[in-house]
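Entry: Putative thymidine phosphorylase
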Amino acid sequence: MRARRAHIDTYQQAVVYMRSDCDVCRAEGFEAQAQVEVINGQHRVLAILHRVDSDWLHHDEIALSDAAWKVLKVHEGVPLRVRHPQMLESLRHLRAKVYGARLDYGAFHALMQDIAAQRLTDLHLAAFVTACAGGRLDMDETIALTRAMIDVGERLQWPTAPVMDKHCVGGLPGNRTTLLVVPIVAACGVLMPKTSSRAITSPAGTADTMETLAPVTLDVTAMRRVVEREGACIVWGGAVQLSPADDVLIRVERPLDLDSDAQLVASVLSKKAAVGSQKVLVDVPVGPTAKVRSAEAAQSLAHALVTVGAAIGLEVEPLLTDGSQPVGRGIGPALEAMDVLAVLERRHDAPQDLRERALLLAGAVLEMAGKAAPGEGFLLAQRTLDEGRALAKFVSLCDAQGGMRVPPVAPYFAPVTAARPGVVTQIDNRRIARAAKLAGAPRDPAAGATLHVRLGDPVERGQPLFTLHADTPGELRYALDYVHQQPSIVAVKEHT
């Protein structure tokens, strides 16, 4: 079959298109949605087949999605081989898990190998993610899954110790403390090579926000170069392929909107171990509309993080924090980046809650690293920020990663105002995050929401509560329609 580029973006899923009446489809019995193996010399990819009944594709052509085209490193007209893929032994472990069986390390390792090699279809991946959600992995399985994720990828090592890391379990819009913690810690001489994820179920991930300020798609060689020069980095974990199976699973978790505790623990800690971290601080926001809603759930997650961390050689310190409302003002990649810059530049209008939260976390990391005595980390972090050393380190980090950028600004925006005077009694994290996503975040970096009030603030009728930002009028209307159906996203109680 002759290669043809379809110019269709199927994200990370490789897809190919063939005529239903072509000789290969008829001879091999390829059905729509079948998985096929496509080979170009030493390069091969497993792809989902879409059958075409139209003359835009010739009988001897196979059209490739952007993802398949990239993997095969092919050119127009190059002959490609197409065949049925070999049977996957790991699928029996997947079926066993669907029916409730416990899996051991060998079973998880076989699955992770095939997932990392992208041999499983999105249907298989969705079945695996679902079968492991809802408390269906016990502690031993979570440890086995984490080890398997680590073992099918690379594992970096660094010449100095300790190697520090920090992570937030998510669920709190605007909580972009990593972009402050890393330069503070690095400015104090502590090694912190930070790999971060893109958004899974939120309006922005750390990598999405950092990308509005500097390149984050660095390979391992470039990442090492930055860390050797600056003592830190903030890069997208998906580009360095340190836990490749996790990156594939995240692709499916995003549309499913699933992020269960066991998979969260395995995902986070496999990445930390792979990047060579030795000590990890984990921010666990707790609040009625956060990802973790109760003290009991937080303690259970904290116990899992510590236990699994110890099993794979990581010192993990969970820190339970206030998750009752968003952090800062911006919700969305560029809007959150502007908050970060305001804090780093020590501007008078910088969001103080973001500043204080970042100092708390940076101080805890400095104490874990032995750079500050117990109880003195906050003050060291504060001095580092107030003296401008954190800003200088951040600018230097951005330059090392490819150059600092100016975050984009959305051309369309609309305020959402208070229907009555009173006091703000609740800000729903989940629903304001959904509104920001409907406005286009994180796909459109400038899209999202800007929050104008905090819990306990008095407001007047008609006063802006938050503003939606979008790249197109249609997306703005879409988000506003949702907001108007959810009048208590920001709840205002009238004075009595």
